[in-house]
Task: inverse folding
């Protein structure tokens, strides 16, 4: 919003900020996964001037099911746990999402968010207030098109997680989950969430997750690099 104040006052301070935002988008490692970063220059540059980059931490609520968002949030780094509240009132994990995952897009059609999302790790996100974008006429057809593409990708990701959970046996389920995480992170060296998060996703216990990790290590399907990282022997990316 400070950019808008600078524009209205005629101050040239708004120009360097715009250039800095454009450069940040152009040089961002997550650009190809981001619905804003992958836009054409006119739309990308306009929205880039409104971006506020913010950190998030593990367990921080980033989106709440049933709430209508006031801003668009896009994961730049880190991962988030997606949860869905069921009829018994409990929120259960349905998948992990990483760079490029977009929060709040349903608000563009006056609909509440379908999932609750919390930080599965620390990370950073880019936020654009809808009111500011609307006031500048930036939510045009091309922007909508990119957000639809983002939704299609995220729908496919949820389907992949549903499929992974239907694999027989805890080690095989964990292997399928690690494959999905490697694909999202773009590396065979996977940054692991906590065993509590993995247990939530697999519908099991931390002890079973620990045993399954040992089984995968013993069968040389992965190598533990440290507490938070493991390298997979193969990834279907």
Result:
């Amino acid at each position: 919003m400070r950019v808008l104040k600078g524009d209205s006052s005629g101050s040239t301070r708004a120009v360097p900020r715009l250039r800095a935002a454009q450069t940040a988008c152009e040089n961002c490692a997550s650009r190809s996964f981001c619905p804003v970063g992958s836009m054409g220059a006119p739309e990308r540059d306009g929205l880039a001037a409104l971006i506020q980059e913010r950190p998030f931490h593990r367990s921080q609520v980033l989106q709440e099911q049933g709430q209508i968002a006031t801003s668009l949030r896009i994961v730049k780094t880190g991962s988030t746990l997606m949860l869905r509240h069921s009829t018994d009132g409990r929120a259960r994990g349905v998948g992990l999402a990483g760079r490029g995952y977009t929060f709040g897009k349903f608000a563009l059609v006056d609909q509440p968010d379908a999932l609750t999302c919390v930080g599965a790790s620390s990370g950073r996100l880019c936020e654009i207030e809808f009111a500011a974008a609307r006031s500048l006429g930036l939510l045009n057809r091309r922007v909508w098109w990119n957000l639809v593409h983002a939704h299609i990708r995220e729908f496919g990701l949820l389907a992949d997680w549903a499929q992974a959970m239907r694999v027989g046996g805890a080690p095989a389920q964990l292997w399928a989950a690690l494959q999905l995480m490697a694909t999202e992170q773009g590396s065979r060296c996977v940054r692991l969430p906590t065993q509590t998060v993995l247990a939530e996703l697999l519908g099991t216990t931390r002890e079973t997750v620990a045993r399954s990790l040992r089984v995968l290590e013993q069968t040389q399907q992965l190598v533990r690099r440290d507490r938070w990282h493991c390298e997979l022997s193969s990834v279907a990316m």
Observations:
- The CA atoms of residues 71 and 129 lie 4 Å apart.
- The two ends are 39 Å apart (CA to CA).
